[in-house]
Design a protein that fits this description.
This protein is mainly α and about 120 residues long. The protein is about 70% helix and about 0% strand.
């Protein structure tokens, strides 16, 4: 069976009908959105795990100014580190794909959510 349910072997990515291209584009866009949401959930979870546990040793009804300041600083550093490491990972993955001869345009678009990089 060909691309997206077509039974003709001629229906490949290079000779797809406009309808098939639209479906392919919609699926890629949905995967990008799901990947971005997964990354955001993962980032929030890690910030909670590391920063909150470090800065708020005894949770109470309110946070002290010191706890609030610690939490803000920790979150900024963690998110900055996340962005730097994500960009480095994407650059390395692109380099690996280029060396392997994989279609980098489609893969970069999927990996970065179509924006050229993660900026959470």
């Amino acid at each position: 069976m060909g691309l997206f349910g077509s039974s003709t072997p001629a229906a490949t990515a290079s000779t797809s009908s406009p309808e098939q291209q639209e479906i392919k584009t919609a699926i890629i866009k949905q995967l990008q959105q799901e990947a971005a949401m997964n990354n955001a959930r993962q980032l929030i979870g890690k910030v909670n795990e590391h920063c909150f546990d470090h800065c708020v040793p005894a949770p109470g009804a309110t946070m002290t100014p010191g706890e609030s300041s610690c939490l803000s600083s920790c979150m900024e550093k963690y998110i900055s580190l996340w962005n730097v490491s994500s960009k480095a990972y994407l650059a390395r993955a692109a380099s690996e794909r280029k060396n392997a001869g994989i279609d980098t345009v489609a893969m970069n678009s999927l990996a970065t959510g179509g924006s050229g990089g993660s900026s959470l």
